[in-house]
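In the design runs reported in the main text, the only information available to the sequence generator was the tokenized backbone. The following block is the verbatim input for one such run; it is reproduced so that readers can re-run the procedure and compare outputs position by position.
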């Protein structure tokens, strides 16, 4: 029971229209632009998977779990809880929601395997997921015509694929926003980030925010993604931001995902030998649960996020679902931005399905209603979301980005609180940023 019609795959449907000499690997190499034209046309590229008209809508949520690097177990756990909640309240337009989950293990091959499984299971969308390997999973999703709705935004590819519908501005907006937040408060800035392909983009983005606000660029300091100790890195970062005693108080920015806490433990022990400095990071590297377990280590830290602070009453509906369907599940942390992104992604899915009324819910019908300008209210957690062409941000590097709003927060008395009321839009800086 998948809610989708058994049809040929996108490539199978496309093959008769290709020259006989064109091999399948070449067919797979169709440009994203050509793919977008085909997928936006109801006929002319063959049939795409559709619905059977039954009472089950099947989607998938994936994320890495039990790895040595970044893990996001709360995202698939919340997706399952959401399905239980929505089904206990009558389903989506009377249809049952079925959520499949997959662990990509932070591995390129595994990520592609999750995408192929999604196609094999005839899911209508991949919703509220996290993976660093977009180049591996987007190809199979595009070939099957499956929308990627509400990814975490950890890679730039999520902001270029015509089948991607991001609900936030991803790492680009966070780093640009953090640069703007720090420009008026910090002297020298040192960024400590993973020595990975994804990590290579971070200093460009942070510096765009800094320099747009009249601050000089940061010092880029690389660290092993799976390091278990950061004393040397903490010492080097402190030396760099305190080198000139005449300068304004410096800031150290660890953007190491799950390893940020490990860095901060080394930093706490090392900083006693240096003048006072401040720390800063982005949500995903710091969240309220980490602050709760480390005492005063993060006190005074600047933090840039996508959404309102986790204590905001706009999160009450999510917390109610967690209380009803996942009470005691310690994988789900309501302050985790991955969990929050999954909640918003499923909110979008619900609104999109409701807009279809009694029509079949298929991958194609979901894409069509989203592309045609459906405006989605997320209860103030984001601006109104709308992926119609005219609402896309004018940035060549982030062609699918529709939400460039961030929030400026700070740790005060052990709590992440709002530093500046409301959202800050960083679209103008992003438009000028080349990663």
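Verbatim output:
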């Amino acid at each position: 029971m998948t809610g989708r019609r058994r049809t040929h795959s996108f490539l199978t449907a496309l093959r008769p229209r290709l020259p006989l000499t064109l091999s399948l690997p070449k067919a797979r190499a169709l440009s994203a632009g050509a793919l977008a034209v085909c997928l936006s046309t109801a006929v002319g590229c063959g049939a795409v998977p559709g619905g059977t008209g039954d009472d089950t809508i099947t989607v998938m949520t994936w994320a890495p779990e039990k790895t040595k690097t970044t893990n996001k177990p709360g995202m698939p756990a919340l997706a399952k809880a959401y399905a239980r909640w929505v089904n206990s309240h009558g389903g989506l337009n009377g249809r049952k929601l079925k959520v499949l989950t997959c662990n990509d293990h932070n591995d390129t091959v595994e990520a592609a395997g999750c995408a192929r499984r999604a196609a094999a299971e005839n899911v209508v969308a991949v919703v509220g997921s996290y993976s660093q390997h977009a180049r591996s999973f987007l190809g199979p999703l595009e070939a099957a015509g499956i929308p990627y709705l509400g990814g975490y935004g950890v890679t730039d590819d999520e902001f270029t694929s015509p089948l991607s519908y991001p609900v936030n501005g991803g790492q680009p907006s966070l780093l640009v926003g953090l640069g703007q937040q720090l420009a008026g408060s910090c002297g020298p800035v040192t960024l400590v980030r993973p020595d990975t392909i994804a990590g290579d983009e971070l200093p460009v983005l942070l510096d765009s925010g800094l320099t747009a606000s009249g601050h000089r660029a940061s010092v880029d300091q690389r660290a092993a993604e799976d390091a278990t100790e950061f004393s040397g890195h903490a010492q080097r970062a402190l030396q760099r931001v305190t080198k000139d005693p005449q300068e304004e108080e410096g800031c150290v920015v660890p953007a190491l995902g799950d390893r940020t806490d490990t860095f901060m433990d080394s930093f706490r022990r090392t900083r006693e030998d240096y003048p006072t400095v401040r720390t800063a990071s982005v949500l995903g590297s710091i969240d309220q649960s980490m602050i709760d377990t480390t005492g005063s280590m993060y006190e005074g830290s600047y933090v840039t996020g996508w959404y309102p602070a986790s204590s905001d009453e706009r999160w009450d509906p999510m917390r109610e679902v967690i209380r009803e369907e996942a009470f005691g599940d310690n994988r789900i942390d309501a302050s985790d931005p991955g969990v929050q992104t999954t909640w918003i992604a499923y909110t979008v899915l619900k609104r999109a399905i409701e807009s279809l009324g009694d029509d079949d819910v298929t991958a194609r019908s979901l894409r069509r209603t989203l592309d045609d300008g459906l405006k989605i209210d997320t209860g103030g957690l984001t601006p109104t979301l709308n992926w119609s062409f005219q609402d896309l941000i004018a940035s060549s590097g982030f062609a699918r980005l529709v939400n460039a709003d961030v929030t400026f927060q700070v740790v005060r008395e052990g709590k992440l609180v709002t530093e500046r009321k409301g959202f800050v839009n960083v679209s103008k800086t992003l438009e000028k940023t080349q990663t």
